[in-house]
Amino acid sequence: MYIESYGCQMNFSDSEIVTSILSKEGFDATKDITQADLVFVNTCSIREKAELTVRKRLEFYNSIKRNKNPKMLVGVLGCMAERLKEKFLEEEKLVDIVVGPDSYRDLPNLITEVEDGRKAVNVFLSLEETYADISPIRLRGNGVSAFVSITRGCDNMCSFCVVPFTRGRERSRDPESIIEECRELFKNGYKEVTLLGQNVDSYLWYGGGAKKDFKKASKDARENSVRFADLLEKVAKINPLLRVRFSTSNPQDMSIDVIDMISKYNNICKYIHLPVQSGSDKILKLMKRGYNRSEYIKLIDDIKKRIPDCAISMDMISGFCSESENDHLETLSLMDYVKYDFGYMFKYSERPNTSAARMKDDVSDTTKQRRLSEIIAKQQSHSFLHMNDKIGQTLEVLIEGVSKKSDQHFFGRTTYNSTVVFEKKEKKIGDYVMVKIENCTSATLQGKII
Ligand code: 5AD
Ligand code: SF4
Questions:
Q1: Which atom of ligand 1 is nearest to the CA of 356?
Q2: What is the separation, in whole angstroms, between the first and last Cα of the chain?
Q3: Using CA atoms, how far apart are residues 96 and 108, in angstroms rounded to an integer?
Q4: Band of the pLDDT at 386, cuts 50, 70, 90?
Q5: What number of CA atoms fall less than 13 Å from residue 169's CA on the CB side?
Q6: Torsion of CA 135, 137, 140, 146, to 10 degrees
Q7: What is the residue range of 442's domain?
Q8: Nearest ligand, CA 47
Q9: Which one, of 33, 87, 29, lies nearest residue 60 by Cα?
């Protein structure tokens, strides 16, 4: 089998689960697509562009199937499979299998169905599936840093977002299985785990089931429930040499306990990805984000008060429905207030069936693009400020690999998630080193091991 992944980290993590399920069926993974009997593409629906990328890849698989490997089966996994369901089979004649994010356990059966000459679809969304008992097979990794999924789905229903439709209701994974997976990773030489979920701050374990059913759980289950801050602490306690990161936080759900836990444990990285999407109250309301500008700013202030050097990043959308020039200026002024360390910035892309799809997508593409460029330019100047600030400091770096530009150099990351490049000396991948920062660009720091 050959598997390619697009979209968020959760998708990459899911592909490791799929690989694990299929390896039990006797499939070996190959990196050479022309050798594969089974080709899977794990897809993303977040923006139209993401879907177009996948369509292009399907054309490419088709050319391989025609010219080199006529017996090859093609499966579409993930969010686009969930969104389009059977329609995929009509639209893309070469696709044999369509499987949504909660149905990967069914893959062996579906493959058998296809081998019997049928097309196979399973897009059932579950209230319980967390793949808790499946040990992911980590194909792409560096052996140092791994993703560990802790929740699936999302109940937030932001008006622009397709995720609640493609990944279903929110549910949390059994903390014991999470700790066990992290322990095992550390035993195998890993030094960093990133706890993954669409909305990690709303992690809530009360013995299983969907988040929305918590109120119906027994008193005992509710009193013994585990929340995200508790989980973070459990993972941090595994070993001080195991770094802990997490993504993604939602401003509406992030609690002070989580911030306190970051400051309490040295091995919980001082970096929070806190998507804001807009700086305008009017737009935040239309987006159904569940917080306003001043609540968001209060949260940022709380973080900075408790952890003055905490790095913060954001996601931002330009040109959402009815966004005026003034709304856009509010976004820029919020950025000036927060001065994010990093940013992931996008043009609004209307997604079918979302509640925003019923609003008018009335900002022209030219305006969306211009506003996006202004947001990106501002972010670059802020990123550069933060990078520049680090010059002269000596920072702990976890070595993750050999630099792409020079085999005499390693790269790694600081607690703040910034990448540092430095001369190898006699160190090795997976070591922690202290690096004195001497120079920077807006994306990387350069320094010397001391
Ligand atoms: N259009 C543009 N960007 C989007 N995102 C989510 N949905 C859309 C959309 N319809 C962005 C948000 C989110 C990130 C993962 O993708 O910024 O935080
Ligand atoms: Fe894309 Fe969202 Fe699905 Fe991740 S959850 S693959 S970002 S649509």
A1: 10
A2: 45
A3: 13
A4: very high
A5: 13
A6: 20
A7: 394-449
A8: 1
A9: 33
Whole-number pLDDT of residue 309:
96
Same domain, 85 and 214: no
Q: Quick one: angle between helices 256-264 and 293-306, nearest 10? A: 20
Any domain includes 350 = yes
In a domain, 342, yes or no: yes
Token output for 450: 């001391």
Quick one: angle between helices 175-187 and 228-236, nearest 10?
20
Q: What is the mean pLDDT of the segment spanning 206-218?
A: 86
96 Cα: distance to centroid of ligand 2 (angstroms): 22
Q: What is the CATH number of the domain that holds 186?
A: 3.30.750.210
Give me the CATH number covering residue 83: 3.40.50.12160
Q: Does residue 291 sit within a domain? A: no
Count up the domains in the chain and report the number.
4
Q: Which ligand places an atom closest to the C-alpha of 372?
A: 1
Q: Give me 177's structure tokens.
A: 């299985």
- DSSP characters for 188-257? TT--EEEEE-TTGGG-EESSSSBGGGGGGS-HHHHHT-EEHHHHHHHHHTT-TTSEEEEE---TTT--HH
Q: Are strands 419-423 and 444-449 parallel, antiparallel or unpaired?
A: parallel
Is residue 296, in this structure, part of any structural domain at all? Answer: no
| Mean pLDDT of the region 220-232 | 94
Could you tell me the CA-to-CA distances from 418 to 244, 373, 422 in Å, in that order?
15, 23, 13
| Same domain membership, residue 425 and residue 371 | no
Residue 378 pLDDT exceeds 80? yes
pLDDT band at residue 303, thresholds of 50, 70 and 90? very high
- Burial letters for 183-209: b for 16+ Cβ neighbours within 10 Å, e otherwise? eebbeeebbbbbbbbbbbbbbbbbebb
CB distance 185 to ligand 2 below 6 Å: no
DSSP conformational letter for 288? T
For the CA of 162, the nearest atom of ligand 2: 8
